Amino acid sequence: MTLQLGDTAPDFTAETTEGTIRFHEWLGDKWGVLFSHPKNFTPVCTTELGYTAKLKPEFEKRNVKVIGISVDPLDAHDKWAADILETQGHALNFPLIADPDRKVATLYGMIHPNASDTTTVRSVFVIGPDKKVKLTLTYPASTGRNFDEILRVIDSLQLTAKHQVATPVNWKQGEDVIIVPAVSDDEAKVKFPQGWKALKPYLRLVQQPRT
User: Fold this and answer.
1) Do residues 92 and 191 share a domain?
2) One of 45, 66, 127, 151 is an active-site residue; which one?
3) Alpha carbon 104 to chain centroid distance?
4) What is the span of the domain harbouring residue 189?
5) 46 part of a folded domain
6) Number of domains composing the chain
7) Which regions in the chain score pLDDT beneath 50?
8) 201 flagged as catalytic
9) pLDDT digit string, tens, across residues 152-182
10) How far lies 152's CA from each of 6, 37, 68, 171, in Å?
11) Burial of 118 (0-12, 13-18, 19+ CB in 10 A)
12) CATH of the domain at 167
């Protein structure tokens, strides 16, 4: 199964380090980040989980719940959590799904046979409150993910979901945004009374709207 943008994120029931969850129910009306790990006790994953735990307050400020997944059983997750705290300085503070039968990994297309028949690639899914997939990222097992970039993308997704704007290259929170072409100049005068800078008729920069 290949999930595409706009698809409904598959629901599932799974055991996690924080008990049994049903995914859609657990997500509720919040945004979600689901990210996979090839297996437990791998060095790159250990750094990623520790850093994500450090960033949890940033995700919470954005109304985002984070959940990880690995194909190892639950008792191995508990042992790995101790290593994460010891080496990264941050305790696991979000659920980690145990997926030994690869049920969830298969639902989300996290196993790429050309890379490995048994372990997941480094997949990231950002899911909106409507349970639709808003972003997918796939990394090779050897490359750690940039979770600061994932936060930046969430900022853009949340902003553009609320206002008729898009974010330019390398945009960061607080910087100018682009008025989407579907908004005419007359409509833009109502939506953005402070005015904008038109580099081209189709490229209109405006101060970031308040969320």
Assistant:
1) no
2) 45
3) 16
4) 163-206
5) yes
6) 2
7) 114-115
8) no
9) 999 999 999 999 999 999 999 999 999 999 9
10) 20, 21, 19, 8
11) exposed
12) 3.30.1020.10
